[in-house]
Amino acid sequence: MKKKHRIRNRHIVLILSVILLTIFSKSWREIPKYYKNMVYVSSFNAIYYLLCRRHLVWEFIPNGINWWLIRVVHTIIITPLLVLVFLNKMPNTLFKQFIYFLRWIIISTAVEYLIHKKHLILYAHGWNVLWSGILYVKMFVYSHLFTRRPILTLFLSLCSSVFFIFKFNVPLKIKHFSRYFEPLLDIYYHTYLVDLFTRKKIL
Questions:
Q1: pTM beyond 0.85, yes or no
Q2: What is the dihedral angle through the alpha carbons of 152, 148, 81, 73, rounded to the nearest 10 degrees?
Q3: CA-based radius of gyration for the chain
Q4: Which of 70, 184, 177 is nearest to 122 (CA)?
Q5: At 181, is the pLDDT very low, low, confident or very high (cuts 50, 70, 90)?
Q6: How many Å apart are CA 193 and CA 89, to the nearest integer?
Q7: In 3D, which of 156, 119, 126 has the Cα closest to residue 141?
Q8: 50-57 long-range CB contacts below 8 Å, 24 or more apart?
Q9: CA triplet 136, 137, 143: central angle to 5 degrees?
Q10: Higher-confidence residue: 30 or 118?
């Protein structure tokens, strides 16, 4: 029980850290300027949970927090705010932009590695922190590109999404008979039964 409370508190610290970063960097003032970029990133995050709902390659381990709530918080608050802070401080010159991208990708990947080690996020189906690093490359590059080339960005996002779907064998059978039992499957996947399995990996 104490371990579960520690993990829950770590989630709260992570969420508050991102919100405070947005406040102290004064990035929140630029929401009217970058809200489309934020919606873009949030939308593709939501699409991931929709397409991969039975084949999640990564998932936040709730432990005391409702699984649906933690997904929503990360989808509509945490990820968009990170992109907002990233875009708000974008340098002007090409070389400085390259260094800026590199720094954000390395720091984000390192933070996720620590989060994984602290048992806040679980990997599956061959996913690892290196793939997360590639995903951060995609997120930061595409969110910046979306400002000037939204149609191109959407096309590239579609292509990369198709790649990930085939790479990690994501099943897309919409008419599969299991759709009739989705409420029961949700009960199985997101109750303490799933904690019994994740706890083995944590321990």
A1: no
A2: -30
A3: 18
A4: 70
A5: low
A6: 44
A7: 156
A8: 51/161, 51/165, 51/170, 51/172, 52/170, 54/171, 54/178, 54/185, 55/125, 55/168, 55/169, 55/170, 55/171, 56/124, 56/125, 57/123, 57/124, 57/125, 57/126, 57/127, 57/131, 57/168
A9: 85
A10: 30
- What is the tens place of the pLDDT at every residue in 78-129? 999 999 999 999 998 999 999 999 999 999 999 999 999 888 888 999 999 9
More confident residue, 94 or 183: 94
For residues 64 and 7, the answer to whether their CB atoms sit within 8 Å is: yes
